[in-house]
Amino acid sequence: MVAQSCVRLLYTCRHVFHIRQVHANVLIYGTFNDLVVANKLLYFYVQHKAIDDAHHLFDEMPMRDPTTWSVMIGGFSKLGGYANCYATFREILRYGVTPDNYTLPFVIRTCRDRKDFQMGQMIHDVVLKHGLLLDHFVCATLVDMYAKCMVIEDARRLFDIMLSKDLVTWTVMIGGYADCNAYESLVLFDRMMEEGFVPDKVAMVTVVNACAKLGAMHKARFVNEYICRNGFSLDVILGTAMIDMYAKCGCVESAREVFDRMKERNVISWSAMIAAYGYHGKGKEALDLFHMMLNSAILPNRITFVSLLYACSHAGLIEDGLRFFNSMWEDYAVRPDIKHYTCVVDLFGRAGRLDEAAKLIETMSVVKDERLWSALLGACRIHGNMELAEKAANSLLELQPQNPGNYVLLSNIYAKAGKWEKVAEFRDMINQRKLKKVPGWTWIEVDNETYQFSVGDRSHPQSNEIYETLMSVIRKLEMAGYVPDTEFVLQDVEDEVKKEMLYTHSEKLAIAFGLISIPQGDPIRISKNLRVCGDCHTFSKMVSAVMRRSIIVRDANRFHHFNEGTCSCGDYW
Hints:
The protein has 573 residues and is mostly helical. The protein has helices at 2-10, 16-28, 35-47, 51-60, 66-78, 82-94, 103-113, 117-129, 136-148, 152-161, 167-180, 182-194, 201-214, 217-229, 236-248, 252-261, 267-279, 283-295, 302-315, 318-332, 338-350, 354-363, 370-383, 386-399, 404-416, 420-432, 463-479, 495-503, 506-517, 534-546, and strands spanning 442-446, 449-453, 524-528, 551-554, 559-563, 566-567. Among the domains are: 165-264; 337-438, Serine Threonine Protein Phosphatase 5, Tetratricopeptide repeat (Alpha Horseshoe), CATH 1.25.40; 442-567, no CATH class. Strands 2-1-3-4-5-6 form a six-stranded mixed beta sheet, with helices on one face. Strand 4 (551-554) and strand 5 (559-563) form a beta hairpin. Helix 21 runs antiparallel to helix 22 (354-363) and helix 24 packs antiparallel against helix 25. InterPro entries: DYW_dom (IPR032867), E2_motif (IPR046849), E_motif (IPR046848), PPR_At4g14850-like_plant (IPR046960), PPR_rpt (IPR002885), TPR-like_helical_dom_sf (IPR011990). This is Pentatricopeptide repeat-containing protein At1g08070, chloroplastic-like.
């Protein structure tokens, strides 16, 4: 009777203090040896986030059963005590207790949250040893862990062997691909729909994010129609994701339509729309929206200022950007961090004001990171400042010695300056350290299919037609005054060879494919994983004029809208 009374009292507790009173009564009346009572005490301590009290109780318990271990591990997992979570799990194994499908998911989620792939593999071995791999909850949690740790192949292998998959598991797998292979993410979404699963709002947000990463406009429109048809409300999370999706698919007007349809907007929604204008070089619209936000009594945060400064940088609004940067702390109590400083360095760098960028870096009080030095190095590449480029590169290589992109960027600067011995030196360093350069890819969506091109690519079934079209277009452009800019071929070869290399850049191949595959009047949309080169930028402008086609290019930095021989970036990118 005393034990039952203690358990009933625990359900009335509203504060840790009350649980401690019940705990004291348990000790006084000698019911501590009742495992049901002790486990309930442990559970309520964990529920009230009193992890130290729970841990002390756990250590004092004379008996433990699987529930005891599970509650304690769950408490450590939920409340961030990852070291104790791992240690307690090791105790389970040492005491010979068989872990179950309640305990294991907690430990696996801890590995997921900490991106601790090595520990995750060890837990996976334990799962195999105890024959629990076919347990739905355990296997689904392992899939989630591998996906979040970006080990997508292992996640997919487990996903494929699962005997039954629920909506959550599908969503986890789709989300995992969205982070590293957006195309496969959308393929998997289609398969999920074919198998009869009805996506919920969480799944739709995941798919929306995949569309954003891939820039897949057709799929974006399908997703939008599905959301409208099934009555999903455009809350802050879904609405903001859709703003980002349309912006990254190249249609800032549709992003604004979603923004205007949202019944509720928070600072993140406003910041996303400001960022959308920034991607597309619409600096004035970004500034106008910022003032609308202030008039709506929404105060900006650090994300808002990153979006605003980015927009100013990519639109050449130098004085506006500096004014916003200087007002952050003084007017809005938002302390600038490294992202804001990086935007200002980029702002100065794009305008060629490299001395001011360097001075800002020297005087700033926040810790410098690789993005800051990359922004400066990129500006040095544009404006040919070799001395400052070497300083930025050395700092960058200290921070990221294993990032091949840093070596390639500095190598390209030396190549532009004609210092081929330095180029060879850096390429040797890449080879010696066994670093792999990120290959340049361009994607284009045609008839609901996404096609991928690399430089000199001949893998497409219509390859001969693509090359014939490309050479025909180049001849027309040359008659209109196009001269290939061989400065952008960063190899020490003859000019004729340089021209041939320029002619087969991946974005030119994708545009040629678009010319033969996309009806006149529809824009040609392509996406790149790297920054568009200057020659391809000129090529795209002239194609838009000579061939009378609208071309939208999304590169690693921003969007370029080519129409009638001009680009939305104003040649400022």
